[in-house]
Design a protein that fits this description.
heterodimer, A: alpha/beta, 13 strands, 13% strand, globular, B: alpha+beta, 3-stranded antiparallel β-sheet, 5 helices, 40% helix
């Protein structure tokens, strides 16, 4: 039976897997101890649970458990990585390379670093949302301390060539930091094979709880250090003080374990549904996929429906389908998605985009319903769209003098 | 953000979607907004040149639900009004009728601008002087 509403905004957050909740429950009620309490069983139990979760998390990304620093989420991990590296490696240099399509947590941390006297290069991306590797190498200079490029983009799902990026970084002795929030748990991520030195990720994008994430910090070849941004009891090897969120961490660990076990089967099933959705929606005239279709997360599709506006489109079905749009109207700002604009999309196409994020729990029935609802709404709104009428009459929309406002 | 019931109703059952013959002398067309800004409204009126009454009004809008509702409501209000009465339609009446939140006030401004542009287009076609309006400040 089809249950409404349908949730297809899994890049924003995923529902928790019931198995994760089950693992967490005892740590709210019975095993409530502080993992830093060293002299009684409550503390020992909590510490043991955290240690176990740390192993589960490390295993998913091919890391050593000691390399996992638990945080409150990916935003905190992004801040800690960038600001921490900037402070720690001040004697080596002050230059960081990033890209214009990064998440705000990275971009705004970089802006903060600029205010602190750092220099940041914001690289542009190709029409597919990828970094030009030759340009990246040419951007490195003697003062460069780190390259901060996300593993996979949150709006388009475009997956960056991390191995190639890190090979260049290694050659020049530059650290690689990646915000892998959307990638970890969805596609194989291995910090050693991928040559990553620091990596931010979070539980709630992979069927775990909100409020817990991690920063991977390499301990060998090279040994990487970050200056703490939160001072206090010296938890997490001094890099992140604050009482550990034990139930959250336990849930994070469980979520990682499940992803590890089920990634392959999940991906096979979800990517098939995503492709079905995409192929069907591309049957509509003037519908375009944003970002790379070849180097992409298996559960994401970002599609623009020309001459209809995203928020207006969402309104046609948002009682029954939860989705997000790159349209400015759906956000607090007046600008449409900066990520889509960085791909070279005009504002009009950015305003017309929908982002689909499927999950482990998405069913074929839901996809069929979504295809029908969206197709109908696009057709209905195009009948109502003056731009569509002009397009159909062969009028070049760029030739019109639009009233500036 | 939740939409008001009236916005939802206009969105689901828009009134007067369509196109009038823009080459006709009796038809005034206003096209306002810009695709880059995420809303474009085209509002048309058909005027009985003898009585000065608006006999028909049609719209097409590219934009959010509030923009669609504002233009749909505007066409409803225009029909049966004289051109002079139509000039008095104020965006804030649209805001009140549709219960638009502050972030959507620009949709009502756009509708008011579209009405004025359509009237001016009609006046121009009929050898009347265009009316100069104070520029809208919202956007």
């Amino acid at each position: 039976m089809l249950k409404l509403p349908i949730y297809l905004d899994n890049n924003a957050t995923t529902p928790m897997d019931p198995r994760v909740l089950e693992a967490m429950t005892p740590y709210f009620l019975n095993h409530f101890g502080n993992a830093a309490s060293r002299n009684h069983s409550f503390g020992w139990q909590a510490e043991e649970a955290v240690d176990y979760a740390r192993e589960q998390v490390a295993k998913l990304i091919g890391a050593d458990p000691k390399e996992i620093i638990f945080t409150s989420g990916a935003t905190e991990a992004d801040n800690l990585a960038l600001k921490g590296v900037f402070e720690m490696y001040a004697s080596k240099g002050n230059h960081i390379i990033t890209a214009t399509t990064e998440h705000k947590a990275v971009l705004d941390s970089c802006k903060h670093i600029e205010k602190m006297g750092g220099e940041v290069t914001y690289m542009s991306v190709t029409a597919e949302g990828l970094i030009d590797l030759a340009e990246l190498e040419a951007t490195i200079k003697p003062t460069t301390i780190a390259i901060a490029i996300m593993y996979a983009n949150n709006e388009t799902g475009t997956v960056m060539p991390m191995k190639e990026i890190s090979a260049i970084a290694r050659k020049h002795g530059v650290l690689v930091f990646t915000d892998a929030t959307q990638a970890v748990g969805k596609i194989p991520v291995d910090v050693n094979k991928d040559g990553i030195d620091l990596m931010a990720f979070t539980a709630h994008k992979m069927y775990g709880p909100k409020g817990v994430g991690a920063l991977y910090v390499r301990r060998k070849n090279p040994r990487v250090k970050v200056t703490a941004q939160m001072d206090g009891g010296g938890h997490e090897r001094g890099m992140r003080s604050g009482t550990l969120n034990v139930p959250g961490i336990v849930g994070f660990g469980k979520a990682c374990e499940i992803c590890m076990m089920e990634m392959e089967s999940d991906t096979a099933r979800i990517s098939k549904l995503r492709d079905k959705l995409e192929v069907a929606l591309l049957q509509l005239e003037e519908a375009y996929v944003n970002g790379s279709r070849t180097s992409r997360l298996p559960h994401v599709a970002n599609i623009s429906f020309k001459h209809v506006e995203g928020e207006g489109l969402l309104m046609g079905f948002n009682k029954n389908i939860a989705l997000s749009s790159g349209s400015a109207c759906t956000s607090a700002s007046l600008e449409p998605s900066y990520v889509l604009k960085a791909l070279g999309l005009g504002d009009d196409l950015a305003h017309s985009s929908l982002r689909f994020g499927l999950s482990r729990f998405t069913t074929e029935e839901e996809i069929d319903y979504t295809i029908k609802a969206i197709s109908e709404t696009v057709l209905k709104l195009r009948e109502m769209s003056p731009l569509w009428e002009m397009y159909k009459e062969g009028i070049d929309l760029n030739s019109i003098q639009w009233a500036a406002h | 953000m939740a939409y008001s019931e009236k916005v939802i109703d206009h969105y689901q059952n828009p009134k007067n979607v369509g196109t009038l013959d823009k080459s006709s002398k009796n038809v005034g067309t206003g096209l306002v907004g810009a695709p880059e800004c995420g809303d474009v409204m085209r509002l048309q009126i058909e005027v009985n040149s003898e009585t000065g009454m608006i006999t028909d009004a049609k719209f097409k809008t590219f934009g959010c639900g509030s923009a669609i509702a504002s233009s749909s409501l505007a066409t409803e209000w225009l029909k049966g009004k004289s051109v002079d009465e139509a000039l008095k339609i104020d965006n804030m009446t649209i805001v009140e009728e549709l219960n638009l939140p502050p972030v959507k006030i620009h949709c009502s401004v756009l509708a008011e601008d579209a009405i004025k542009a359509a009237i001016n287009d009609y006046r121009e076609k009929n050898g009347l002087e265009k009316i100069t309006f104070a520029e809208s400040v919202v956007h």
